[in-house]
Amino acid sequence: MPSIFISGGAAGIGLATAKRFAAEGWTVGVYDVSEEALAAVAAEHPDFITGVLDVRDPEQWSTRLAEFTSHTGGRLDVLDNNAGILVAGPLAEISPDVIKAQVDIDALGVTFGAQAAHPYLKATPKSHLVNIASASAIYGQPGIATYSATKFYVAGLTEALELEWAPDDIRVVSIWPLWANTALADADAKSIKTLGVRITPEQVADKVWESVHPTAADRALSRTSYSVGLQTTLLGNAAKFIPNVLNRTVNKLIAQ
Description:
- This protein is α/β, with parallel strands linked by helices.
- The protein has helices at residues 12-23, 35-44, 58-69, 96-122, 145-164, 190-195, 201-211, 216-220, 230-241, 244-255; strands at 3-7, 27-32, 49-52, 78-81, 127-132, 170-177, 225-228.
- A 7-stranded parallel sheet has the order 3-2-1-4-5-6-7, with helices on both faces.
- Helix 1 (12-23) crosses helix 7 (201-211) and helix 3 runs parallel beside helix 4 (96-122).
- The longest helix is centred in the middle third of the chain and has 27 residues, at 96-122.
- The termini are far apart.
- Belongs to the short-chain dehydrogenases/reductases (SDR) family.
């Protein structure tokens, strides 16, 4: 039975992804920093494997992955690096602790997870590392500058590991949603008001499922990114072809 380990899996996109894969018969591991949220998940889904995970701690990653794979015979088909936080506001007004927390969780946490999962993914044929990126990495977003920057990091990490881990038969991809109907969309960011919240956690979960079942074209083109929703697709494709000054103007109108 294939297996998926999901960080930040007790709510929002992570939980929707857990339900999507469980419905397909996968062994699902839901890991989160919130014990209360995990208890609620375990009560509703006793078939899920759950555990407390602070993604900032490499030792916790090692311990939880070892625990999870003890239920799967060492198999790990997918690590879904989903955990993340967002704090909106002008950079000059955000505390250093908040800045550090976003970088530690949204960038370092993803990296620690990838590193800890590598031996299990390598031991599982045709495995996947899935990193949750964001449309905020298409162009740097004022008002959520630190979060946006961490998602550029996630995009770069994904591309680097796609090359680095290809000889290990590990496919590395990133998922690019715009604002989804989750707690992150409660942020006071101008782009939410401009663009609205038009995608659901279930749509993102469907895209995660699609990404780990690549078509022949996906493999032939070494596809590494999957946009979620029409807005993200249009913005992402436009950014590849329009002049930077126009790209800047579009994003200024969206975010300010």
